[in-house]
Structure formats: structure tokens, C-alpha cells
Amino acid sequence: MAGAGLRAVARRWLLCGGHGGPRTASSSPSCPGCGPGPGAHCPGAPRSAPAQAPAGGADLSAHLWARYQDMRGLVHDLLPPEVCSLLNPAAIYANNEISLRDVEVYGFDYDYTLAQYADALHPEIFSTARDILVEHYKYPEGIRKYDYNPSFAIRGLHYDIQKSLLMKIDAFHYVQLGTAYRGLQPVPDEEVIALYGGTQHIPLYQMSGFYGKGPSIKQFMDIFSLPEMALLSCVVDYFLGHSLEFDQAHLYKDVTDAIRDVHVKGLMYQWIEQDMEKYILRGDETFAVLSRLVAHGKQLFLITNSPFSFVDKGMRHMVGPDWRQLFDVVIVQADKPSFFTDRRKPFRKLDEKGSLQWDRITRLEKGKIYRQGNLFDFLRLTEWRGPRVLYFGDHLYSDLADLMLRHGWRTGAIIPELEREIRIINTEQYMHSLTWQQALTGLLERMQTYQDAESRQVLAAWMKERQELRCITKALFNAQFGSIFRTFHNPTYFSRRLVRFSDLYMASLSCLLNYRVDFTFYPRRTPLQHEAPLWMDQLCTGCMKTPFLGDMAHIR
Predict the structure, then answer these.
(1) Which of 340, 346, 459 is closest to 403 using CA atoms?
(2) Where is the signal peptide (predicted)?
(3) What letter would DSSP give residue 486?
(4) How many degrees, rounded to 5, is the angle at CA 104 between CA 99 and CA 106?
(5) pLDDT tens-digit readout, 232-271
(6) 147 given a catalytic annotation
(7) Annotated catalytic residue, options 59, 77, 109, 160
């Protein structure tokens, strides 16, 4: 058993003081990673005077490398193959405690929530918007040579319009160095820092407002923005590569307008309608989720920005011709996020052909289709309020933010990228790279008190190795920008908003099928920094204070 093996490793570590042999009266009570600082101490070790380090020079350098090798051995012993694949890509992850038993009403967005789309849609959006730029905005013909690169960008990046910089920012508003691109080329770290006045930090007023749009910086938050970021970078790359002068704001607006035209003119809807088998994924699972909820007496509603004809054809494909009988309320072309804040737009009823009716809406009827409206009238007419409502969407700002913060609904975020990221996290390469990176960081923290010339050389070598490990771990997710959830060590700005605006998050709606309809989700007690000794992060100091990975395998 992995748990038994790990416990044996820990017992040996504690009994031997981390030095491989039985502890004697003269053995050091400290463990590898515990430096000479005050209070550096392993649990299980007697509280005696700290061990004396060598006086300096070559002996001290050898002492540091010995601690390094001891820690390498510990990490190797802690990570047998059984500890990989601990996370389930089909699991639902909780930011906040929520019991489905208390949820009576389920609401859904349509695009990328009820309907999951294949990645094959993105090259179509990219190439069509690219051609619109050439044909209608008179951009250079040479732009047509660019094709969509699905592995270039990730969701959640920020774009500085005036600097033409696409970059990844962490939860504390710092640019992750090595992830700033102008066009398709990386921008040196020194230049990024110089562009922002000698710092990596982006001031709050420049960042993004409530919906991810600041005065000069925009955050790309939805999945449809992936081809937009790719096209923006390709066009900038062409202009820079051909030494063409351009106004950054005009270029940005033209690209976003071209992408918008693909949606507004209905081109994307046409592609999907013409080949639903190609573009719509997991339709049978969507049907299973909705049918199961209705069978357990839950009320359902749909609020989407997409038009009725498109939604109707997609739902017929996934659920069948009677799909509207599953929903108590259906609202199309809702114009989110203003649907949640603007009281002025009334509901309009559509007939069976999708034509507008002139009736004054005094109630929302099952089986009928409504357009626009606003959340305040919706709440008044349905009386669906507070935490008994759970709404699912893919866009953290447009779908979820207002509902959670202003109206007290429960929210679930659909993050398709989660499945791939968890599969990477479950690999042996990632597990070993990250764990050794954490352990090496702990060594650096503890051993930095040694400041003689030889010790500084050792610490510099460790710093170089740590940076190499960080780059390797980042590239496992995306060569340019890494994971959508983390910078090297901090959560990304995207992660910060995900935690703030969603009670639950999952890769797809079908994850609900893995849980009972009365299941209670309990968020893990993730450590604050002062609580870290209670958790596996304490490996950073080499002190064994936490449950072992083998014992934690049953958690998910």
C-alpha cells in the first residue's frame, strides 16, 4: 500500500533525523531543509540545541550540497508512482460549501454550458475574421498567410492596447515575467519592467473594471476570445515584421470588430447549424443532466444571449423536439451582462416561428420563448431568489459575477480547460517537477543565512535550477503562457475571479452526473501562509507534519 510505504519513509526520516542512520545522542535534531535559523526544527525531534554547521569554505559548501542530496532522496521516497492520478478530471470543485439538497431551481447559459463546442470552431472564426479585415477593413493582403495556432494563447490573458502587449497577470496584478508577447514574439523581461515604470505591477485603475475592461487594458475571459487573441497577435506581428506604422487602438478595435462581425452576422451560427455532429459535443450528456434534474422535481430555466432559432436547433439536436418542456422559463437574446443590471428592457414574447409579439408580459409561462427583459422583472415574476437558485455559465463576468455578488444566487462555472489541466497535473513528470521545486524553494529559504562566497555560489546554482524547473512546469500547460490557473507560484487573475464569482467549477455540465442531487460539496481547507505547517506544503522546509499523499488518494 502506498500509504504504508509513505508512513515508513516518514518514520525512518524522523527517527534518523534525515541523515540515514539511527539517531544517537550526538545526532543532529534538525532535518534537511532546516537551516540554522531560530526555531528550525522537525516534529518528533527532541528540542535540543541546534546542530553546529561547518565553519565555512569548502566544508560549508559540502554541507549545503549534502542537505540538497538528502532532500532529493526524501522527495523521491515521498512520490511513488501510486500518488499520480489523484485528481479526477470529471470532478466538481467547490470554492464555497453548497448542498444541492437546498437548490430548487437550476439556471443555464447556452453556449459552452448546455452546448459544448469542438475546438474545430476556432479556426473558422479566426480565418473568417482575418478575411473580413482584408476585404472590408482593407488590411494588407499578406495577413492571409497566417493560420490559427490553437496552442498560442490561453483564456484569461490581459491585453494592453496602447503597448500592444498580450500578457498573463497574477492575482496581485503582477505580470508573470516570460509571458508578455507583442505580436508573436516574447518581450524581454527588462523591457516589460521598463514599460511599466520599473515594476511588474499593473495599477488597479489600469487593470480591468467589474466586467474585465479597464481604460487601456482588456481581459479575455471567454472561450470565444481564443481566436481573437490569436488574430490580434498575428496582425501586430505582420505590421511589426513589415515596419508598418499603425495606431494600436485602431488596430485593436478593427480586430475586435471583425471578430464581432462573425457573431453578429450569424456566420458562426450557420457553421454550427450545418454540421452539429462536428461542432456540438456531449449532447447526450446534456440531455441526461436536464432529464435527471426534472425527474427529481427541480425547476429549470435558460438565459442566453444567442437567438432563438440557433438555440432551438441546437437543443433539438441534443435533447429532442420537446426540449422546451424541460424548462420552466426560456429567455433568448438576453443581452447579458446588462440583463442583470438594466431595469429598462421589458420582456418580449416570441411565437413558434420566432417572431416578436406585442403582449404585455405579466407572467413567464412554461414552454414559451421570451426575448431580452431584465433580471429584476424575472425575479418579480418567478420569485426565484437567493441561494435556492444555482446558475451555470462559462463567462465569469457576463454570466456569474452579478448573480453572486448582487443577488445571492449560487453559481457554477464551466471551465472546459480544467479537464486537460488536471490530466497534466496527474502526470508523473508534473508531480515530480513541482514537488522538487517546492522542496528546493524550502532549501533556499532555510539556507540563505549562509552568506560566505562558496555558499552564495551554491545558492545561486539552486536558484538557477529552481527557475529552470518553473519554466519546465509552465511549458507542460502552454509554452507561451503556462496554466490558466497559476503563474509560477501565485494564482492567476483569472483564478482570483473564478474563486470570487463561483461556488462550484467543473469541466462540463456532465460532471453533475457523477453526484447525487442532494450531494453537499465541501471546499478543501487550503492553507493560508501561517497555516502551511498543517499541510503538504510543509515539505518546503523538509519537516513532516502532514497527511501523506497515499492516505489522501481517496479524497477525489
Answers:
(1) 340
(2) none
(3) B
(4) 95
(5) 999 999 999 999 999 999 999 999 999 999 998 999 999 9
(6) no
(7) 109
464-515: pLDDT as tens digits: 999 999 999 999 999 999 999 999 889 999 999 999 999 999 999 999 999 9
Say which residues have a Cβ less than 8 Å from residue 535's Cβ, sequence separation at least 6: 526, 527, 546
pLDDT digits (tens, 9 = 90+) for 315-339: 999 999 999 999 999 999 999 999 9
Q: What nine digits make up the cell of 240?
A: 511589426
375-414 as b/e: b if 16+ CB within 10 A: beebeebbebeeeebbbbbbbbbbbbbbbbeebebbbbbb
46 — phi, psi (to 5°)?
A: -65, 145
Is 160 annotated to bind a ligand? Reply is no
Please check if 257 is assigned to a binding site: no
Read off the C-alpha cell for 414: 464551466
Query: pTM for the whole thing?
Result: 0.84
DSSP H/E element including 204? none
What pLDDT, on the 0 to 100 scale, is given for residue 16?
39
User: For 217, phi and psi rounded to 5 degrees?
Assistant: -130, 135
What CA dihedral angle connects 459, 460, 463 and 465, to 10 degrees? -100
Domains delineated in the chain = 61-89+418-528 (no CATH), 99-117+278-414 (3.40.50.1000), 120-274 (no CATH)
- State the pLDDT at residue 552: 38
Q: Helical H runs in 328-452?
A: 375-382, 402-407, 417-425, 428-447
Counting Cα atoms < 13 Å in the Cβ hemisphere of 48 gives: 13
Q: Which residue of the set 111, 312, 399, 537 is catalytic? A: 111
Q: Strand, coil or helix: what is 108?
A: strand
Annotated catalytic, 189? no
Q: Is the dihedral of CA 205, 206, 207, 210 positive or negative?
A: positive
- What are the DSSP E strand ranges found in 450-540? 504-506, 520-521
- Location of C-alpha cell 523591457: 191
Q: In terms of Cα–Cα distance, which of 327, 359, 328 is closest to 346? A: 359
